[in-house]
Design brief:
CATH topology: Amino acid/polyamine transporter I
Number of helices: 14
Helix content: over 70%
Low-confidence stretches: none
Distance between the termini: 29 Å
Radius of gyration: 20 Å
Strand content: under 5%
Strand order of the largest sheet: 1-2
Structural class: mainly alpha
Length: about 375
């Protein structure tokens, strides 16, 4: 029996997944990639995108084998009930942990930029409450919200770049690959982990109304994100040369440079408003995956009764548990997450696919 009765199109799925991957990355990845690759940081997202294409391939290969089941459900089918429950719980913890990290990043950014005296609990709690109602509305509600807001979010880097053209210094990107490919590959570690979040597609694939178009729109989504990451990093290079890593949020810092004819300036508020719609969809998607996956893991008939309890859990974890301060959180994202995220988002699903293919082959030989 399907817990979720709603249906969305493959296009809506791609719109949901765009901010799920890109919303926080557009703010933080330029600083992280710049730390290693400096003026060659624009190449790192292109290399990192390879993991996005690989993960999309893995997700759709698993979906072909188990078209009616989400990631949490197909794990049990592939490796058995006992181990499946353990690995499934590991993924549910990962969803909870990821949601907490996103909320803490959101809270820190809002606190630093605008609400310096507002307690994090209020900022995080307010966002979680809004997301709770969206999650209870189901996947169709998320799809319609993405239809409305995501095109603005996707166009944001391009809009900012066009308004800053007069301040660009293209010579900053020269010489290309001055220090070899080593720093560029190190800079690609963080983007490739973010691209691995395409695994979240596996939680909504059973609810697509046009599954035959799912692969096409997923690949388009990865390409659009790659282009936007590259534009964002180029923007940072043209403005800050190789010093983008000195800014916690290079893209937001760049917005403060915008001045046209002495009256078209101070666009930070508009930028933040657009970005918040993206972060809202990102948090809601991870939140949805958490409650839907938990309901499937526990064999519940409905996920809606656990939405608000998990909202409280996300709020507490985001405020207190995930990191004592921004420096610790940033260190985790830079050093640990590329390995932690890639293991759960790409390598374990790849292992599951290999096991599933071997079992499928054995079953054919038995017959």
């Amino acid at each position: 029996m399907m817990i979720e009765k709603g249906k969305i199109s493959s296009y809506q799925m791609a719109l949901i997944m765009y901010p799920t991957i890109a919303a926080t990355a557009l703010l933080t990845v330029p600083g992280i990639t710049g730390m290693y690759a400096e003026r060659d940081m624009w190449i790192s997202p292109i290399i990192g995108s390879v993991n996005g294409f690989i993960t999309v391939f893995i997700v759709f290969q698993l979906h072909k084998l188990y078209p009616q089941e989400s990631l949490i459900q197909l794990i049990e089918r592939i490796i058995g009930r006992f181990m499946g429950k353990i690995i499934g719980f590991l993924y549910l913890f990962f969803f909870l942990h990821s949601g907490s990290i996103i909320l803490r990043e959101y809270s820190t950014f809002i606190s630093v930029s605008f609400l310096q005296t507002t307690p994090p609990f209020v900022i995080i709690g307010g966002m979680v409450l809004v997301c709770s109602f969206a999650v209870r509305g189901g996947i169709e509600g998320l799809g319609r919200t993405a239809n409305l807001f995501v095109p603005m979010v996707a166009l944001l880097p391009l809009l900012i770049a066009s308004l800053l053209l007069k301040d660009f210094e293209p010579q900053n990107m020269l010489p290309v690959i001055e220090h070899g490919f080593g720093p560029v590959l190190l800079g690609a570690a963080a983007p490739q982990a973010w691209f691995g979040q395409t695994l979240f597609i596996s939680m909504i694939l059973p609810f697509l109304s046009d599954r035959e178009k799912g692969m096409k729109w997923s690949l388009i989504m990865v390409i659009v994100i790659t282009v936007n990451f590259t534009i964002t990093n180029l923007l940072a290079v043209f403005l800050f040369n190789g010093t983008a890593s000195g800014y916690a949020y290079p893209l937001f810092t760049a917005v403060r440079y915008i001045t046209i004819a002495t009256f078209f300036e101070h666009l930070e508020s508009v930028t933040i408003a657009i970005w918040i719609t993206g972060i809202f969809i990102k948090i809601a998607m991870v939140y949805y995956a958490l409650v839907l996956g938990t309901a499937q893991w526990l064999n519940l008939k409905d996920y809606k009764p656990i939405v608000f309890p998990f909202g409280l859990l996300l709020t507490v974890f985001g405020c207190q548990w995930v990191a004592p301060n921004f420096e610790t959180l940033n260190q985790f994202v830079v050093v640990i997450y590329p390995f932690y995220g890639t293991l759960l988002l790409t390598f374990i699903p790849l292992l599951l696919l290999v096991i599933a293919k071997i079992r499928q082959k054995q079953n054919k030989e038995d017959f």
